[in-house]
Amino acid sequence: MDSATAEWTESQDAAGGQRRRPGRVFAGFAAGLLFTVVSVVVGCRAADSDGITPVPQLLAFLPWLLAPAGVGLAFALLARWRVGMVWGVLVLGTVAWFIEPYGKVGEPDGKSVAELRVLTSNVQFGRGTNSLVTAVRRERPDIVFVEECEHRCSGTLKDTFGGSHGGYPYRAAVEGSGSNGSVIMSRFPLKGAAGVRGTMGMPGAVADVNGHAVRLQLAHPMPPLPGQLGAWRRELGRLRDYAATSDGSTIVAGDFNASQDHAAFRHILDAGLHDGARLAGSPRTPSWPARTAPVIGSQIDHVLVSPDFSASKASFLDISGTDHRALLITLSLHQLR
């Protein structure tokens, strides 16, 4: 009787193991799939490459890859897959390593000779124009960069802020429809300058900031959509060339359609510019998409400055009608020794 009971128990244990096995197989497969996707993206980040679709799109959300990596590790534990557990820990550690802000920054040594506030806003085909007007009136920045400012947007800004009584008598613009138009408005006198060539308008100018010449360049390269990666890389490359040839005080601001996790954007920083949001203590604060920011998103709107600038404050403003939050940076221009 006892031997029969023992035999029946052993058979039930074996059957239970067989029933559990498919679940473990699924958990192991799911873990491997998640780790593979994250590893490819992180591998491109480590290799200083933006890869091919969908890697550039996923790189914009690299910090959030901690979530699938964590789920994969849970699946590996469920499957009792030791190799997967080690793989998961390595993937999580690598993602966490790359979350750190990129590049070195430092405070200028010279005394401050001018202070200015710079705002950049993508108004999404002009839809956020009215909300931007309200924000500009409230915040009173000194220089405003506006992307996707089509004809009606450009006209509204000119009528509202242009002339001696509007507060922004100086402007540089590329007029265009849809996403092609862009405008720079300034309290400081502007001189014309060739802008960086791009599919969408990217005007340039030179501002006289209390007697100091400051080069201004609006940034709005093509987004990294499937089939458009070549244009995206080329136009970010032209912005990098602009930064590399800058021999004085420089501000490059706008919607870069790239984050610090994109190699093409890091190359612009490597050319000698600093990210104003990071200088002000707000790295990786999401600016897009506005619907989910600041909880989930990517910082693709930037104010980049030459090393003779410091930044004391960065504010991300909600602008209705657009999928971007505006970025307002308080800068100080220093006299370098």
Helix count from the secondary structure assignment: 9
Can you count the beta strands? 12
How are helices and strands ordered from N to C? HHHHEHEHEEEEEHEHEHEEE
* Helix content bin: 25-40%
The low-confidence parts are: 3-18
Q: How would you describe the shape?
A: elongated
What does this 3D model show about the protein?
The protein is of the alpha+beta class and 337 residues long. It is 39% helix and 22% strand. The protein has nine helices and twelve strands. The strands form two sheets. Strands 3-4-2-1-12-11 form a six-stranded mixed β-sheet. β3 and β4 form a beta hairpin. α1 packs parallel to α4. The termini are far apart.
Summarize this entry quickly.
The chain is an alpha+beta fold and 337 residues long. The chain has 9 helices and 12 strands.
Secondary structure layout:
Layout: H1 2-46, H2 55-59, H3 66-79, H4 82-99, E1 112-122, H5 129-139, E2 143-147, H6 151-161, E3 170-174, E4 182-186, E5 190-193, E6 204-209, E7 212-219, H7 229-244, E8 250-255, H8 263-270, E9 274-275, H9 276-279, E10 301-305, E11 309-317, E12 326-334
Parallel strand pairs: 1-2, 7-8
Antiparallel strand pairs: 1-12, 2-4, 3-4, 5-6, 6-7, 8-10, 9-10, 11-12
Helix pairs in contact: 1-3, 1-4, 3-4, 7-8
Which terms summarize this structure?
337 residues, alpha+beta, six-stranded mixed β-sheet, 9 helices, 12 strands, 39% helix, elongated
